[in-house]
Design a protein that fits this description.
Layout: H1 2-20, H2 45-75, H3 86-110, H4 113-143, H5 152-181, H6 192-217, H7 219-231
Length: 232
């Protein structure tokens, strides 16, 4: 429950910060000037709102799984799955993918096709390497006796990492669609709206993975225990 409440607090904070930047108190009927060009006005809002709502739902799902993970440990203490060192490398690959996608956004904004293509390819390779690395971790753990139908800790591990991997795979499909849609376009800046949403998606899934990684390592449980001790 603590995990869910913490996530809801973060969502409320993010929503408040976003709403504070939307100029809700403005009176457009009193303003004068040139109307915004097509593609630079409110047309971007639906895609942004959709991805934010979708990520909020996904975050709520991971928050519920994390809360169930913590509560199950409290009720029936178990031994956590020993994560292979490969998981650290996979985390680094996901971080690189997020950074490369940010470079794609910067390149699209600047209109530099050379760095955009290189960053886009690098982000895709790093993401695919992350997914392949996660599959290798599954194989290694299964060979070590930690099966999907085994201990509760192993079942939670496969469920959490599997759902995260599926969302990353969906992001790869969306990124490929954006790239192919504008492959023949002469204006590199036409990619900006799509890759900006993809970058937001990657950054958020990276944040989700870091929190899940902390839980799977047992750091989250130690932190929650410290918080409970401080409150008590």
């Amino acid at each position: 429950m603590t995990v869910i409440l913490a996530f809801l607090a973060l969502v409320a904070l993010a929503a408040g910060l976003w709403l504070s930047q939307q100029h809700l108190a403005s009176k457009p009927w009193l303003e004068t000037g040139i109307a915004p060009l097509a593609g630079h006005g409110p047309g971007k809002a639906p895609g942004f709102i959709f991805i934010v709502v979708f990520l909020a739902v996904v975050g709520g799902l991971f928050a519920m799984l994390g809360s169930a993970f913590v509560m199950q440990i409290d009720e029936t203490p178990w031994e956590l799955v020993p994560l292979p060192t490969r998981v650290w490398l996979n985390t680094g690959l996901l971080l690189l993918a997020s950074l490369f996608l940010q470079f794609v956004v910067i390149s699209a904004r600047a209109g530099t096709a050379r760095w955009l293509n290189a960053s886009l390819i690098s982000a895709s390779i790093a993401t695919l390497a992350f997914l392949a690395g996660q599959a290798q971790v599954w194989i290694e753990l299964t060979a070590g006796g930690y099966r999907l139908d085994g201990t509760p800790a192993a079942s939670f591990f496969y469920l959490i990492t599997g759902l995260h991997g599926l969302h990353m795979l969906g992001g790869i499909v969306a990124l490929a669609w954006v790239a192919l849609r504008h492959a023949g376009a002469g204006d590199v800046k036409a990619l900006l709206p799509g890759v900006r949403l993809c970058a937001l998606y990657w950054h958020t899934l990276l944040a989700f993975w870091l929190m899940l990684f902390a839980l799977l390592q047992g750091w989250g449980n130690a932190f929650l225990a410290l918080c409970r001790a401080a409150v008590g």
